[in-house]
Every structure is written in structure tokens, then in C-alpha cells.
Amino acid sequence: MNALAAPLISLGLTDWLHLVLHFATLSLLAVGGAITTTPDMHRYLVTQQGWLSETQFNASIALAQAAPGPNVLFIALLGWNVGLNNGAGGHPIGWALLGAAGCLLGVLLPSSTLVYLTARWSHANRERRGVRAFKQGLAPVVVALLISTGWILGSTQAANFPDLASAAHTAWPYWALTAATALLVWRTRLHLLWLLGAGALVGVLLG
Amino acid sequence: MPETPLPPDPETSATVSPQSCGDLFRSFTVLALQGFGGVAAVAQRELVERKRWMTNTQFVEEWAVAQIMPGPNLVNLSLMLGARHFGVRGALSALAGMLSAPLLVLLSLAWLYTHYADQPAVAGALRGMGAVAAGLVIGTGLKLLVTLKNNPLHPAQRLLLGSACFVTIAWLRWPLLWVLLALGGVGWALAWSRLAQREEARTRPTGSTGTRQ
To answer: Which parts of the chain span the membrane according to its record (chain B) (predicted)?
Structure first.
């Protein structure tokens, strides 16, 4: 199978509705960020419906990780690619924009509405013991979660790039880079874009 | 929407409020455009250290809410902040700032990627930036450890909750939802009883005031 081959599909109105509704239902399940729902999205878009190729799915996630902005934007990219694959006539960019907008709206609308209402309520009731206990009791978990997320991001370095994955020992310079960055962020106020620029440069030199 | 006036929180004295919805939109655009992979690091830097819209402690506390709610954490956080200051308009301004510019960048990148994905330099740069992004998140977590100093939980309880979270998430890779529900529930219950003890100790001389459901 050609890895770059994209499926040629034809989506009708009900297909588009299904797509948006699927993301809307995932929206309320996406505790901890949209990235936690990727296994289900893969099952739906690639395996079940065949609207995206394996390569398109993986590239969408990798690109969104590398691009600025919240990672949830990878869902817009999934929709964009579904639109591009859609050979239902008309300009492909039009379908791509429709796909991107539909998927992003679907995944954000339910959760954002809920967060908005909760934020109003919890702010109005912020002196209640239950609300204070919730925020303060979760604080150690939140801090540990940040460190864990960084740990996971760092440890998947070797697996992220298939052409280098076999050579696990080549990952150590990247782990050193991660550790050095963590120290600099913790102890200095160096602008984060300098660190990212340096990371890109080191990556080019090592690559 | 009118805000109910509440007694000033001593911790917010050092913070300032966003000036307008335009301010929210611009600030979150700047924030989002800097967030490569590790947006949490940039959010702490921009919102706490540069804009002074919140303290480190408030950041962690709001992050707890943003984290436990469905949806992307930082999108949730921006929404909550916008809503607090300017209601629905503020929430939408912050959300639009978070998403519009980065979306344009991402779609342009996706278009470029189809042409340059084979270049080894591109792959190398992406990989290096990925390693740095991981460091940004870890460093931010380390920096926020200081916010736990004023936490009502006993230091041993904090350490236990934090380590349990790290082991289950980073090593065992358990699903986040269950870890958050379990550890969050324990943390909530412990904090509740510690806060109750404190309030009781404070109100004991005057009798049974201050007890609330």
C-alpha cells in the first residue's frame, strides 16, 4: 500500500452531520485534552469509515504538535484532510475548510458551553469550602500531571520518528536537551522562543 | 453581565485585570502563537509572569478546573478567564484569540508539509523542538511546585498524591480520566477535611458560626 495514497471518498450531507456529531460526543469525553480521544478518532475515521489514510492521520497529529497553538487544532486538520479527500465536486479547498470548521466546532461547542457555565458558577461560589477544597486538593495532582506530561512527551521521542526508532541509543541527546530545557525554564526567565529555536537548530545538526 | 461584589482576595492584590475583549483576544493570540507543543509553559509565563492576570497559585487552581473539565485545558483556561472579566463576550474573545491565528499557521504548515516532509532538516528541527517542548512542560511543573507551599494539605499528603499521579500517568500510562477521578476525589476529600478543621479552629471561640453546607 502506498503510504501517501489518500482515499478518494464522497461525503453526503448525512456523512458530514455524522462527522460533526461524532466529534461533539467525543467533546464531553475529552477530559485531559482532545489528545486523549485520538484512539477513538482513529477507529472512526481510518478503520471504520475509511475517510482518512493512516499517514494522513499520523501526520495531522505530528504537525499540530509541532505547530504553535493548542493541540486541539489537530482535529481541524483531520477535518481539513477529510475535506481534501472528498471528491464530491467543487473546489477541494472549500470542502477542506468545511471539514476543518465542522470538526473544530463539533469538538469545542459542548465542552466550552459546559466550561463556561461551570466557570460562572465556581467563581460565584468561590468562597464555598467545597469549591476551595476542589481547587486546592487537586493542586498537587495538577503539578504532578504537568511533570508527567513532559515526561511522556520526552520519552516518546524515539518512537515518534519511525526512521530513527530502531536506534534507541540515538535518543539520548534529545533527552539531554529535554533535561536542559526543564532546568532553564525552572531556574531562568529566558524567553521560551529562544529555547525552541535552539531545539530546532540542535535537531537539524543531529538529524 | 454584572459581577457580585465580593471582599477582595488578598492574593489578587498583585494582579491586574485584562483591559478589554480586544486585550484578551490579542494576548491569547500572542500566547497561542508561542505555544509549540508545551502550551502550559507559555501560559504560565504569559498569564502569570508577564500579564500578571493571575498568581502562580491561582494558575494552578484554575488549571485544576480546566483540567478536570472536558475539552483542551488551555482553551478551557482562556475561556474561564475571559468569562470572569467580560462574560460571554470575553469568553468568545479569548477563545477566538487562542484558535484563529494558530489555525491559519497550522493549515499553512499542513500545505507546506506536503511539499517538504521528505527534507531531513525539517524532520530534525521538528524532533529537536519536540524535545524542547517536553522540557518546557517539565520545567513549568517544577516551577509551580512552590505554589503548593500554602496548600491546606499536609506535606505528606501532597507528596503522596503527586507521586501517585506521576507513577500512574507517566509510568503505568493509566487513562487520565480514572486517575483524575480517583486522585482528584481523594485530594478533594482531604482538602475538605483540612479546611473544615481550620475553620473550626478559627470559629470555635464564638460558637457555631461559619458552618455551611
So the answer is: 24-43, 90-113, 125-146, 158-174
